[in-house]
Amino acid sequence: MAAFPFEIAATDGAARTGVLKTPRGDIRTPAFMPVGTAATVKALTVDQVRATGADIILGNTYHLMLRPTAERIARLGGLHRFMRWDRPILTDSGGFQVMSLSKIAKVTEESVAFQSHIDGSKHVLTPERSIEIQADLLGSDIVMQLDECVAWPAEEGRARQAMQLSARWGKRSKDAFGARDAQALFGIQQGSTFEHLRKESAERLIETGFDGYALGGLAVGEGHEAMCEVLDYAPAMLPADRPRYLMGVGKPIDLVEAVARGVDMFDCVLPTRSGRHGQAWTWEGPVNLKNARFAEDDTPLDETSDCPASSHYSKAYLHHLVKAEEILGQVLLSWHNIAHFQALTAAMRAAIAEGRFEQFRRDFKARQRTG
Question: How would DSSP label each residue in 12-65?
């Protein structure tokens, strides 16, 4: 029996729309989770994030355990109270950041030992410690198992080694997590781009038993087409009655193609990172507001949007803010981008519910510019 009920309201091909019910509120799927790495979705207040339609945000175990420390957040009432977000929070396990950011990381059967990228201090992360940080100290609603994510491209032997260690760590994570009514634990499928490794990973995760299942080890440099090739088979290996979460993805076209293949949940830093660098995501694709052609463009980014950043400010004004390196430019573009990603998932939910997702997908791809 899973901790949170997952009700699938409609399907259209492999695409599904539904609701993951948590004590802190419903998560409508497909869902995009804005990334609040260090207890903040960069440049935005929680009220702005909430107003975009986000049902859930993501917090980062690695960053929060280093600064301000998980223990301090616990003393201050947990992550929800600390950052004033009263809806669900998913925390990642810290494993990916340990591999990608720490100065030195050493992986053993027992743990991963690493040096902080901030001050070089030494830390050890075990599956049990990751669960303690996420579930007990931060108080997240959806907790992720500790896993090992290998870089791409990965040799088959290396991918197998990491996948099998992740499976063993998944079992240890489940044992440490125990049975909880108000929190859920997700396992993470690994196996790089090798179908038989993905299958073995899924089988081992299902044997352990989780409240939801993530697809890890993608969006690590393999490119859109290679990712879609894995998604052609990997989501279907995971239980159909539980949410499927594609970690670290991605661009709007990635979301649409992944939903078409049965994925329910996403997270990515792209909307806010793009916004801080002058890029806006629109229904026609990405727009670079640094471009001189916007200097006297009096139209908004999206006049149909409920988001003030999208509909109340001209491209000319946004161009000026970006060129002048005004902080408000980063705020408005980050706000617009988060709102656009939420509008995209809302549009996909509606299309699936109305049985027209394939048409939506074709129309969406036809409108996209590149660059």
Answer: ETTEEEEEEEETTEEEEESEEEEEETTSS-TT--HHHHHHTT-S-EEEEHHHHH
